[in-house]
Each structure stands twice: as C-alpha cells, then as structure tokens.
C-alpha cells in the first residue's frame, strides 16, 4: 500500500553529547507521553552516538542523524517514507540553523538562541508536514536583521567586517 499522506515527519530531536534533550518536537500518534519520548531518545542516542552513519532504521522508523561538536540532530520518519524527502528536510533545517547561528552549531549557541532554532523548526515542519525546503527563505523569515552587517557585498565591507565574514566562512568549512 502506498502512503499518499503529506505527513512525513514523526519527530525532530536535538540531543546534547550526553543524550539529554535540547529540543524535541513529536508529530503523530507514536511516543505521546514524556516517558515514551525519553525512552525513545535514550535508545536512539545509545544506538547512534558511536556510529558514523547518517541513516538507520530504529524502532521501525527511518532516522536520519548528524552530530556536530556536542549536539546531535535527528529527523524521524515512518519506515515507508522516502529517505530523500527526509534528507531534503533535514538538510534544510540544519543549513537554516547553521546560518542563523553564524555557523557555530554547538549546544551553548543553540541553547542561547533556542527561540530562533524552534522558530526555524516551525517554519520547516508543521504537524509533520514539510512546509519549506529552502534554507535561505526560512532564514529570511526567522532572522532578526543584523545591524552590523546587513548583506553588505564583500567588496563594500570595512576591513573588520571582511575579516569577520572570512572568519565565519572558514569556521563553517572547518566544521564540516
């Protein structure tokens, strides 16, 4: 039987390096109680914390994940869901968060900007339905305009602005 539902995402979870919840949103009927959610997150973290893959089948659900410094990102979908659709949503969310946090994707920065990260998630997924797969559009809707650098072309930036931009880009490339 083919799944023709728009509901693609069962959960989006961010855990720290100890497996503790930083942010989690569950969509659908599975894992409705906090106890079930914590048990699911613990098992998921135990299974993925030492592995280098990006996708697993866990608890009869497809899970895409990525770790970055001290934070783990998870996107959970049904076993029948197309992995490429999940990956597209996952990359969009990760890229939008990364851009919003100036490519400093780590627990402290996420906790300090949890409102932006949660809003970014809400702009990407609503009740399990993928709303947008354009990270730049999501960042544009979520971000507060920066007064120090509002999309100034690189050639028109002051020396300190150019240095900051170059440093952010280099940090971004090194963390990937």
Report on this model:
The protein is of the alpha+beta class. Helix content is 43%, strand content 22%. The chain has helices spanning 34-48, 83-100, 107-112, 114-124, 135-142, 159-175; strands at 9-16, 21-26, 55-58, 61-68, 71-78, 125-126, 129-130. The protein starts with 8 loop residues before the first strand and ends with a helix.
Helical content (DSSP H or I, runs of 4+): 40-55%
| Secondary structural class | alpha+beta
Distance between the termini: 39 Å
- The fraction of residues in strands falls at 15-25%
Rg calc = 17 Å
| Shape category | globular
| Largest sheet descriptor | 5 strands, antiparallel
Oligomer: single chain
Q: How much is the average pLDDT?
A: 86
Strand order of the largest sheet: 2-1-5-4-3
- Counting DSSP E segments of at least 2 residues, the number of strands comes to 7
The number of helical elements comes to 6
Unreliable stretches covering 5 or more consecutive residues: none
Topology as a string of helices (H) and strands (E)? EEHEEEHHHEEHH
């Amino acid at each position: 039987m083919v799944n023709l539902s728009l509901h693609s995402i069962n959960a989006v979870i961010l855990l720290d390096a100890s497996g503790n919840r930083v942010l989690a949103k569950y969509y659908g009927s599975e894992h409705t109680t906090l106890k079930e959610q914590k048990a699911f997150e613990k098992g998921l973290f135990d299974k993925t914390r030492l592995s280098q893959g990006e996708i697993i089948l866990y608890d009869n659900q497809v899970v895409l994940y990525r770790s970055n410094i001290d934070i783990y990102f998870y996107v959970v979908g049904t076993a029948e869901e197309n992995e490429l659709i999940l990956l597209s949503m996952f990359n969009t969310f990760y890229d939008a968060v990364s851009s919003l946090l100036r490519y400093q994707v780590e627990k402290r920065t996420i906790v300090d900007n949890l409102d932006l990260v949660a809003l970014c998630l809400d702009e990407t997924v609503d009740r399990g339905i993928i709303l947008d797969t354009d990270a730049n559009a999501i960042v544009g809707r979520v971000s507060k305009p920066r007064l120090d650098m509002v999309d100034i072309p690189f050639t028109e930036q002051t020396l300190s602005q150019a240095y900051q931009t170059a440093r952010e880009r280099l940090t971004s490339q090194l963390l990937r």
